[in-house]
Amino acid sequence: MKTTGAPAMGGCVPKGRYKLRVVDAEAHKGDGVKLTLAVLNDGQPGTKLFEYLLFRSTTFWKVEHFLKSCGEYGGDGVEVDSDELIDDCIGWECEADLKVETYEGRDSNKVAAFIFDEEDDFS
């Protein structure tokens, strides 16, 4: 897991696995949460990226993966409220594989996958 090094590629970090910290969260389009995540460099927040968690049946798996990665998953069948998530998640840390995407000539990081131990008992 990468935890050190200066941002590269136009203000983003190279593709790889990183520790992240939630530095901001807000409501997004009525049924989602917009997270601002900071890549941790030697324990200090660095490069920032946005991640959108949508509370829809087809995309809720991503909310669960984020919670599992942060160690905050309540178990199968436990309801997750987006407003409570916004209020509670600032400062949470997780691990994720980041990718680099280019749009209109600018590179930015996106979460490819939140990382958690599949063998952990989340029930």
**On the 0-100 scale, what is the average pLDDT?**
88
CATH fold assignment: OB fold (Dihydrolipoamide Acetyltransferase, E2P)
Helix-strand makeup class: mainly beta
Question: What proportion strand?
Answer: 35-45%
How are the strands of the biggest sheet laid out side by side?
A: 3-2-1-4-5
Give your account of this protein's structure:
Helix content is 15%, strand content 45%. It is mainly beta. The protein has one domain (16-115): OB fold (Dihydrolipoamide Acetyltransferase, E2P). The two termini are 27 Å apart.
Descriptive terms for the model:
2 helices; globular; 123 residues; mainly beta; 5-stranded antiparallel β-sheet; OB fold (Dihydrolipoamide Acetyltransferase, E2P)
In short:
The protein is mainly β and 123 residues long. The chain has helices spanning 60-70, 82-88; strands spanning 16-28, 32-41, 44-54, 93-103, 106-115.
